[in-house]
Amino acid sequence: MSTEIDKSKVVLYSYWRSSCSWRVRIALAYKKIKYEYHAIHLLKDGGQQKTDEYAHINPMKAIPALIIDGHIIGQSLAIMEYLEEYRPENPLLPKDLYARAIVRQMMQIIGSDIQPLQNLKVLQTVAEFTGQEEKKAEWAKRWIANGFNGLEKLLEKHSGQFCYGDQVSFADLCLPAQVYNANRFNVDMSHYPLIQKINKHLATIPEFIEALPSNQPDAEVQC
Amino acid sequence: MSTEIDKSKVVLYSYWRSSCSWRVRIALAYKKIKYEYHAIHLLKDGGQQKTDEYAHINPMKAIPALIIDGHIIGQSLAIMEYLEEYRPENPLLPKDLYARAIVRQMMQIIGSDIQPLQNLKVLQTVAEFTGQEEKKAEWAKRWIANGFNGLEKLLEKHSGQFCYGDQVSFADLCLPAQVYNANRFNVDMSHYPLIQKINKHLATIPEFIEALPSNQPDAEVQC
User: How confident is the model at residue A3 (pLDDT cuts 50, 70, 90)?
Assistant: First the structure.
């Protein structure tokens, strides 16, 4: 990567299996924004996101980051909000203010209370602190279950075909990656019938299929 | 707490020292919204947020939650976005779309990448998993430093008197509680001159003073 950043194109810095990149890929598909895919391998070379060159793109040394409109934006939820404001067609937030609040409440449950607690670098730190590799799965499982318990209750009140009623929203964009990780860590999904039902439905939608890890140029195996 | 929830008033469920309640208190002060303060003690009675009664307010069994406009909303960042949309006077987001994205990027660094990793229940779990109480501070310190490293770089590009230019924003609302915790866990703040400078300025502003833990009805000691 050169230190000269070309801001004339739309570029997504992504890793095929990253939950946060996955959300943004779905948003870009809904907004029909074509982009160049720039793979950042989170494990190769000790983590390509940790280079000084990449830190110019995202000082958090994390993915995703999006170059768009001559700007660079980091943090998946901030990118999603930008895309919604920048291109309101195919809305991913309802119009009603209270409905928007509930969608954001669901999105933040996954985005603040689940995903950050079980991402790669946190699990590596759990292993380091405990000296036990097998503690990683126990840790991840606990926080996913904790968040899904709350989310399922909100879905009982508000869901339809999608997390909020019958319109796709930011909340849905966060779901597939989190369910994927829940299965990976053997969370008992029978406690979450609505999460399962909605996620099954999402898996049939073209924009969600396009954004799947296995459909990315840097995919290593089918998942 | 009765199971009948009175939705006719504005009520904030809060704990004086909670970082996420603190952010929302500042937002309410800026929006000049008067509210009833309902204290939820995170430690007393094994944690008052864990009761079945409170789970009707917030199924995540976490604070803050806000009753407003006949609705209940949880997750601090979702509440803040609602308040901004519901009452646009005294704006806490800039008008320019890219500026809004950077404010949200900064807000999410604290709200997703720092605070959730060092809150009470996560630190309790670190002690449980390691069997060592003293690991809590080491864990918290690492994640605060990791997030502040990225945030300080963004501030170098975008800050003025406040995190983004010379207008107070969501990013500033998240800062005081995080700096308070950084000091509590002995993070070396000399690496973060801009965070320190902005936080000092924020400490002089009436809305920020009003929201301080020590100024809440459930405050136990001065902090």
Answer: low
